[in-house]
Design goal:
With about 450 residues, the chain is an alpha+beta fold. About 60% of the residues lie in helices and about 15% in strands. The protein has a ten-stranded mixed beta sheet. Helix 6 runs antiparallel to helix 8, helix 8 packs antiparallel against helix 9 and helix 9 packs antiparallel against helix 10. About 25% of the residues are buried.
């Protein structure tokens, strides 16, 4: 059917999206593998930073060189290998890679808490897995015909560890765990009452995801504690800066406080940028944990907490701490921004006041210059009139032989008002022309 579909697409001349096959493979990559009891599963998750998919695939290739491997499923971020004595499921996630090893047990084989699915794996392969180990857990799947829930409960220590015991799948199986580490591994015991192989595969996968996402969610707690210690000092610094704003008596004081606020704002934003992903990831992982628990359809066993109750008591407070620190960071960022804006407004008002005073001084200077200019213009008229009348006097005196009846003194005196009017008119006209030129520019 798949080949015929591609043939029709090519015949129809349709262009296929380059990611179509990859997306469809990813959609089917995380389906549970059918399991049957008795079986033991060992699950490892490694947090990777700066590693590539090729690093992991190279190590998987070395595993296949040391034993006969058959690829059962494969995609860009998912691989299932059957090595005969064990089966490996590898998945590449955003922050971590998981390696799930499973091997069958012999029916009737006695329960051994030290038994693992890693016994048949080449040690050099495990040592060469890139990244840092963050999750290590064992899940042992047994039939109720081999082991009864009552016998398991009777073997619990009377005090000390708090055990989780629930029925899942609406009573199709029993799950026992304490989430504690023994020899570096947490342990789950699953007793199969009436599960099909696919139900068993889903139940085991859900338990592995719960443990993996629980640990990944808890990565946010140390960050939250570190941020909490820093936030206390930053909030006190902000309070001290607010006191300094109230005590500021000069623009220099206000500018100094504003510079300190800008420095604090940069530190807060750096902390927000550094922790936003971790806190967001913690919320997402916590939601996944609670969703996987809901998928198990728990039934309470009297006297024991359910998985949901256990997470509410142990995991939820840690997640609330992360959420509280994220809110405190956002609140501090907002307060710093508001106070900075308030101080900037205060500084701007002071600057506007200074500018207003400066403009008033400039206006007074302009008025003074105008009066001086008018005085100079009056003196100019007098000077022009004086020199003009002298020219007239010399002209009349020099032309007496042409106009013998004209007295130079009388002509000069008569010309003075005319010269003064012409000078005043010329100066006013020149001032008007300059004003029009300045208005057009």
């Amino acid at each position: 059917m798949h080949a015929r579909l591609h043939a029709r697409l090519k015949l129809a001349g349709l262009e296929e999206h380059p990611l179509r096959e990859r997306l469809n493979s990813e959609f089917h990559a995380h389906l549970p593998i059918p399991l049957s009891s008795p079986l033991i599963v060992s699950h490892l998750a490694f947090k990777h930073e700066g590693l590539t998919e090729q690093d992991e695939r190279d190590n998987l290739a070395r595993l296949c060189q040391s034993c006969v491997c058959q690829s059962v499923e494969s995609s860009d971020t998912h691989l299932v290998l059957d090595a005969g004595s064990f089966r490996l499921r590898w998945e590449l996630h955003t922050e971590f890679s998981s390696y799930t090893f499973s091997r069958p047990l012999v029916v009737g084989e006695p329960f051994n808490p030290d038994s693992t699915a890693l016994e048949a794996v080449v040690p050099s392969f495990l040592a060469a897995i890139p990244g840092q180990l963050i999750v290590a857990t064992h899940v042992e799947l047994r039939s109720m015909a081999e082991m009864s829930p009552e016998a398991v409960i009777a073997g619990f220590p009377p005090s000390g560890r708090q055990m989780v015991a629930v029925q899942v799948g609406a009573g199709a199986a029993w799950v026992f765990t304490d989430f504690m580490f023994d020899n570096g591994f947490s342990h789950f015991l699953v007793l199969d009452a009436s599960m099909t192989q696919r139900q068993a595969g889903r139940a085991v996968l859900r338990l592995l995801e719960i443990e993996t996402y629980r640990m990944m969610a808890l990565l946010g707690l140390p960050v939250a504690k570190e941020v909490g210690r820093w936030l206390g000092g930053a909030e006190q610094e902000l309070a001290d800066l607010m006191d300094q704003i109230g005590q500021a008596r000069s623009p220099e004081d206000e500018r100094a406080v504003l510079a300190s606020l800008a420095k604090l704002a940069a530190e807060v934003e750096h902390s927000v940028a550094r922790t936003t992903f971790r806190f967001g990831a913690a919320r997402a992982y916590h939601r996944l944990v609670m969703q996987r628990i809901e998928d198990l359809r728990e039934l309470r066993i009297p006297g024991f907490p359910t998985l949901n109750e256990f997470m509410q008591r142990r995991l939820l407070p840690a997640m609330d701490t992360c959420a509280a620190m994220a809110r405190r960071q956002d609140d501090l960022s907002g307060r710093v921004a508001r106070n900075s804006q308030l101080l900037r407004t205060r500084v701007d008002i002071e600057i506007e006041k200074q500018n207003h005073e400066l403009l008033a001084q400039m206006n007074n200077r302009a008025k003074l210059q105008l009066r001086l200019q008018e005085t100079v213009e009056g003196l100019s008229v007098v000077a022009i009139t004086y020199y003009g009348s002298q020219l007239v006097h010399y002209l009349v005196k020099g032309g007496q032989h042409l106009l013998p009846g004209w007295s130079p003194e009388i002509v000069t005196a008569a010309s003075i008002p005319l010269i003064a009017l012409l000078a005043l008119f010329g100066i006013k006209r020149m001032r008007k022309s300059l004003s029009e030129d300045a208005a057009t520019q």
